[in-house]
Amino acid sequence: MMPFSYVRPARVAEAVAVVSADPAAKFVAGGTDLLNLIKDGAEQLHHVVDINRLPLAGIGVLSGRTIRIGALTRMREAADHPVVRTQLPVLSQALLASASPQVRNMAAIGGNLLQRTRCGYFRDTGMPCNKREPGSGCPAQNGQNRIHAIFGGSQHCIAVHPSDFAVALRALDATVLTTGPAGDRRISLDEFYVLPGTTPHIETTLRHGELITAVEVPLTPMAARSRYVKLRDRASFEFAVVSIGAALDLRGRRVRDARLAFGGVGTRPWRSAEAEEALRGRDLTSATIAAAADAAVRGAVPRQHNQFKIELLRRALTGLLTEFGG
């Protein structure tokens, strides 16, 4: 493992300054992903900046219409918070379906959004990987690609984004709050993650030295009627093969509005405007659900070993929407 320096600042400005000054520096909170990447050699860092002393933890409701979750809030705290459980159930369910109890006790909300892919080629430094070493190639294209993306991929990368939490947030129109050398920013989840294209090593719109400070989620009737389903190879401590975060605004059986986000299938948390439109303004019947399921998989580009994800996603969405009352 490459040696690195370690600092633990008490002020946000100090932490930002240290990371901004060195391209090979990163923030660390729970360390449940970054430290493994350093040990495996997938991350080469000069400086690690521990942000756990910064005042970025806690959950609060703003004017009764928005909840703000601090970046250093632990996953367990967020999942157990009474407002999250009752008014944002998809978020609580997604967090509880993530990792293990031990990891949820350590992992921070901000770090969860920035965790790296579980693609074996990325984590094996003996293999080429455009995400780890730009220009070296993507062996997943014709190799073992069962867990890889069927949406949003390119010839340079088909690695799946791993966060359950991010999928749920994308179904809730969430906003990421940041601070950095250029000041504070508010970034919608729709704009936070970027497609791999020709630069798969660039995963978000964060600038170097920019620090996530919080996540804000609007508290709406639709968010209160939301659910998360996760299909995986084992019952716990496993990443999604297919997952769905759904929020519906229903009046009787009529769908007034809908948000559908998917995990385990995209190079970023995936949102299907086509599937949402297939539901919007219609009664939640078996025919409407079937149309939404068909729309959700339209445009999928499977590889040799992950074609099954198309039918799995279609069936998972059908089952979840039926639970809503279809």
From TrEMBL:
Q: Where are the transmembrane segments?
A: none
User: Which spans of this chain does the record mark as coiled coil?
Assistant: none
Matching InterPro entries: CO_DH_flav_C (IPR005107), CO_DH_flav_C_dom_sf (IPR036683), Diverse_Substr_Oxidored (IPR051312), FAD-bd_PCMH (IPR016166), FAD-bd_PCMH-like_sf (IPR036318), FAD-bd_PCMH_sub1 (IPR016167), FAD-bd_PCMH_sub2 (IPR016169), Mopterin_DH_FAD-bd (IPR002346)
Residues annotated as domain FAD-binding PCMH-type: 1-222
List keywords of the entry alphabetically.
Oxidoreductase
**Pfam families reported in the protein's UniProt record:** CO_deh_flav_C, FAD_binding_5
Listed GO MF terms? FAD binding; oxidoreductase activity
* Protein name (database record): Xanthine dehydrogenase YagS FAD-binding subunit
